[in-house]
Amino acid sequence: MRVVLKDCVWEPQGQDLYVLTDPREVVTLADPEGRVAALFAAMQGDPATVAELRERLAADGVELGEDEVREAVSALDALGLIEEDGDGSLGDPDLDARHFSNLAFFGTYARLGRPRAAFVNAVRRAHVLVLGVGGGGSSIVQCLAGLGIGRMTLVDRDDVESRNFARQFLYHHADIGRSKVTCAEEWVRAYDPRIAVRAVDRWISGPDDLTDLVEGVDVIVGGLDGHPEAHLWTNAAAVRAKIPLVVGGMTRSQIMYYSVDPGRSPCVQCDWRDRPAADEPTAGGFVERSRARISEQNLLIAPVAAQIGSLVAYEALRYLTGFEEPQAAGAFVKLDLRAGLTPVRQPFNADPDCPVCPR
User: Fold this and answer.
1) Which of 134, 215, 293, 327 has its CA 20 to 30 A from that of 76?
2) pLDDT, tens digit, 9 for 90 and up, residues 18-31
3) Phi and psi dihedrals of 357, rounded to 5?
4) What 3-state class would DSSP assign to 335?
């Protein structure tokens, strides 16, 4: 195995070595004898094995045993500073060009034994079920397409209307009156023919309507509208199939998204069962009694729709690649439009008697 340094800059300062890979932080390594700086210099050239690095160090007057060099390489790997030679390629120049930025992004998270190409290939093999290609959903589709998701199943029943253009970017004026999901499918095919995409023009009226759609799916994203308990149907279908679910949306003054990791996190039904009863003489009860009387006028505008789509797609990426833990598993992440979109995490109330969660 030959290793290379990732893109970084280093500089000796007294008995320390400063290393910079991210402008927001400096890694400081104790280096009183200059051996670490010498190792960095030895790795700056062509890719090298541990034995070759030892020889380069010896040529510069730094005598280290092979085990010592191996331990140093392991320490640099733990800091995310090195990777294996060739791990930044998908093995095809056209694919490397297509995924140039995706490969660069995952370079930050790559380690020996987990190359950046493995993250990208996980995305390219993934199948995502997208529920709804309207407001947030249209942005989710575009984000997933940019990531190069291998396969998408798109579900919606609406047709394109003029009022969609304030927030839905998949459609054009000539599409008015056409099926949204058909137009979305055409957009994905035109954007990247490598992505397998299937359009399902269907009205979802319960969790059983999703049963035939979840086979082989890695993550379910988006959300259903048209019924006050539609989110519970999606939750039930996802938990039953043991597939992670990521949903985003907007209230009058908040953006929010959440995810469910079946078997590991509380689900939506857990939290729903803890809501106040409509007949309670409390503020919470008043909210429940009053929901149906609040105007359902869609307040979603383009920047907010894009924000929701990106947050949902990014959480889905966490599930698909494991580059970091899901941030919204079993919780609402809420961004207040009146407070500068500062995110606040609000965990679900776990219900040990939940009728949906596995026991």
Assistant:
1) 327
2) 999 988 899 999 99
3) -60, 140
4) strand
